[in-house]
Amino acid sequence: MPYSEPTNLAIVACPGGEAFADEVIVHLRHMYKHRFSLKNDVVAKRYQLDKNDLIKQINFGIDLNTSDVAMRGPTDKYRAPNFKVKSKFTYFMNGEVKTELLECIRGKDVYIFQDVENHAPLALNDGKNVLSLSVNDHVMWLLVTIDAVRQAGAASISLVLPAYPYSRQHKKKGREGLTASLLGHVYEMCGVKRIITLDIHSREIVNAFNSCALENLHASYQIIRELAKIVDLTGKTEDMVVVSPDTGAIDRNKFYASGLKLPLAMIYKERDYSIVTQDANSTNIKSIKLLGDVKGKVAFLADDMLGTGGTLLKAMKFLKEQGATKVICAISLPFFTGNAIELFDQAYKDGYFYRIIGTNAVYHEKLKDKEWYISSNVSGLFANVITRVHHNQSLSDLLDNRNIIEKLVKHDAIPDDEDEPETENTAE
Questions:
Q1: Which stretch of 22-36, 159-173, 269-283 has the lowest confidence by average pLDDT?
Q2: How many angstroms separate the CA atoms of 105 and 101, rounded?
Q3: Please, which residues have CB within 8 angstroms of residue 126's CB and are 6 or more apart in sequence?
Q4: How does pLDDT run across 348-370, given as a tens digit for each residue?
Q5: What is the DSSP letter of 304?
Q6: Which of 2, 106, 288, 394 lies 20 to 30 Å (CA to CA) from residue 65?
Q7: What is the gyration radius of the CA atoms in the chain, in angstroms?
């Protein structure tokens, strides 16, 4: 179980997923160095060895077992793995794309990163072309990258998709396709063994796979960590209520309400489904009713994704009209499509909400400077899951983090730089 170079864990970042991959790699390097130091300390103490001599022995063993003549780097220090695979991405003027790997990945476990909702301008073809790519562009680039990795002889292929593409097309209501399922089958046919994603829109998508494993992560711990910095979770100075923005989000908000030991309310919306939403102003909601009480309280809403934002804007305005002192919303996947950012700017000026807590799972340059937006970092969570999957360790406490949340609520807040809890097996 090597924690230093060479390691068979490799990361290939598609153009859209490069920003998120770089953040995850920072955590991976920190975690691998920490694990190496921990193992060195435990083994040195257990066998009464000098720590510096032990590092030399570990590096000696690695040099003997590597297929190269010897590994680069010092023999008496920790040699950090270089996880990222150098790649070349070419965009042709007719719209075709190509991925070329510039390093050998034969026999490695490769994790391909792609952020399909990254619509920021990307420099392609060595900076000669700057383009904003659609979801379909990103999906196509993901597929050609999977094929390049497969053709290059990877031992296994895993996808890291913070936002699962087409996840809202998961339920058949008429003569329409199940695109979420279709893409899952395509990934499987391409040889993908595992998909790591965040807060997938519907649990039904998990059932679409025959052999591919899907790890559905949750950002609840990271979101509550940020929430604790702006609201008194103990209830000593502020009363708080969790509000489900609609019936579809009731399970998610019930989780927050039970974890935070708070009452749960719900907004019921009457919709006209003959209207197709184009932007935040053309929502199909006809009337709104509240089941519960928010008067004189801080209202906290949680949802999995935010597109045009029309539904959420109406809900937040409605809660303020019902007497809520503050309205705070948590979004796992903050897409903010169309003119949503401008509309939220205006809604903030009008006092309809206090803060939006999102994650960095979706790249958004414009949101960073907004006073009303708080970004919670989930790159450490993904790094933790990747290392545990790669080293065949349990994910239970990361997938079900109720115990972690309970400890967080008791302390009300934690240091800003504290990352996701990581358990270590000191008897390795």
A1: 269-283
A2: 8
A3: none
A4: 999 999 999 999 999 998 898 99
A5: E
A6: 394
A7: 23
- From 39, 84, 269, 314, active-site residue: 269
Lookup result for tokens 């897409």 = 335
Whole-angstrom distance, CA of residue 391 vs CA of residue 407: 27
Rounded distance, CA 292 to CA 163, Å?
Answer: 32
Establish whether 269 is a catalytic residue.
yes
Q: Are 95 and 142 in contact (CB under 8 A)?
A: no
Residue spans of beta strands (DSSP E) within 2-146: 9-13, 87-91, 97-101, 109-113, 122-124, 129-131
What is the 8-class DSSP label of residue 297?
A: S
Beta strands 264-271; 240-244: pairing state: parallel
Catalogue the E-assigned strands of 155-227.
156-161, 192-198, 213-217
Q: CB neighbours of 213 closer than 8 A, spacing ≥ 6?
A: 193, 194, 195
- In one-letter notation, the amino acid at residue 139 is V
User: What DSSP designation does 9 have?
Assistant: E
Task: From 139, 141, 125, select the one nearest 88 (Cα to Cα).
Answer: 125
pTM for the model stands at 0.90
Q: List the beta bridge partners of residue 376.
A: 359
Which tokens hold the place of 399?
Answer: 């997938």
- Taking alpha carbons only, the member of 159, 173, 239, 171 closest to residue 208 is 171
Q: What is the identity of the amino acid at 127?
A: G
C-alpha to C-alpha distances, 189 to 14, 186, 210, nearest whole angstrom: 20, 5, 10
DSSP 8-class letter at 277: P
> Residue written as tokens 């006209």?
272
Please calculate the CA angle 253-255-257 and round it to the nearest 5 degrees.
70
- Among 99, 146, 147, 103, smallest CA distance to 125 is for 99
Helix/strand/coil for 390:
helix
Q: Taking the C-alpha atoms of 21, 118, 197 and 179 in order, what is their torsion angle to the nearest 10 degrees?
A: -140
User: How many residues belong to the chain?
Assistant: 428
Other CB atoms within 10 A of residue 350 CB? 10
Tell me the per-residue pLDDT of 289-316, one tens digit each, with 9 for 90 and over. Answer: 899 999 999 999 999 999 999 889 989 9
- Could you give the C-alpha distances from 207 to 180, 181, 219, 293, 356, in angstroms and in order? 11, 9, 22, 37, 32
Residue 292 Cα to chain centre, angstroms = 32
Can you state the percent helix, strand and coil of the chain, rounding each to 5? Answer: 40, 20, 40
Distance CA 243, CA 250 (A): 9
Please state, as a whole number, how many other Cβ atoms lie within 10 Å of the Cβ of residue 156.
16
Q: Whole-angstrom Cα distance, residue 133 to residue 120? A: 8
